[in-house]
Amino acid sequence: MSARSGEKLVQAPTEIEHIRFECVRCGACCRNSNLLVTLTGSDLVRLSIALNLDHKALMRAIDFYTLEPDAPVPVGLRHIPSVETENGRAFVALRKLEGGDCIFLLDNECMIHPARPDACRSFPFFFQKQNGLKWGLSAMKDICPGLGKGPEVDYRDLTALARAVTTSLVAQRTFVDEWNRGRTSHTAAEFIKRALNDPKFRL
User: Fold this and answer.
1) Does residue 170 lie in a domain region?
2) Backbone angles phi and psi of 27, in degrees to 5
3) Nearest-5° angle of CA 185, CA 187, CA 190?
């Protein structure tokens, strides 16, 4: 996969130009109670196919995290569209167990690694599509011991990942905007069902 012609990956102004990163498989990002693995429709479809789960079964691995009405949106969620549900506006994410572990973490290993969500594929980076492709480091970057280790990041690979992630996010925002404007019942289960059947998210 390569970046579209004329679409360059631009670093966020606060980031260093050259960076080293290598995942050391420590599981820190999978165990942090303050780090949500938000999901797009593409992530939901990927998980559904990989695990052979329909929307009802998939619901057991997903939570809809709501914020108090006057609570500020955490920095890491400011560019993630929130979803209307029967319990108010929420962010769709993988379920966390008591203590903060991801539901798919077992013996410090990811049970869904080949089908892991884009948020996992991206960490500790984040990407935005805004006058081109932009990248930066996650607000939770300090929990990652792999930053500063290993080879220098290959910007061709980073650009390819950015393209994939931002394309998925654009489709997600369109889908969520349509969902939030809808006049039908906004239940979490129905949201998952519709996402799994929406052509925007076909892999």
Assistant:
1) yes
2) 80, 5
3) 95
First-to-last CA distance in the chain?
14
Q: Is 155 helix (H, G, I), strand (E, B) or coil?
A: helix
Give the helix, strand, coil percentages of the chain, each rounded to 5.
35, 20, 40
Q: What are 152's strand-pairing partners?
A: 20
* φ/ψ (deg, to 5) at 169: -65, -35
pTM over 0.85: yes
Q: What are phi and psi of 151, to 5 degrees?
A: -75, 160
Look at the block and give the residue holding tokens 């196919």. 49
Distance, CA of 124 to CA of 112 (rounded, Å): 18
Q: Tell me the pLDDT band of 59, cut-offs 50, 70 and 90.
A: very high
**Number of other CB atoms surrounding residue 198 within 10 Å:** 18
Domain span at residue 180 reads: 9-201
Q: How is residue 76 annotated by DSSP?
A: G
In degrees, rounded to 5, the angle at the alpha carbon of residue 46 between the alpha carbons of residues 164 and 160 is: 15
Q: How many domains does the chain have?
A: 1
195 within some domain: yes
In a domain? residue 165 = yes
Confidence band, pLDDT 50/70/90 cuts, at residue 134: confident
**Continuous segment of H or E residues that includes residue 202:** none
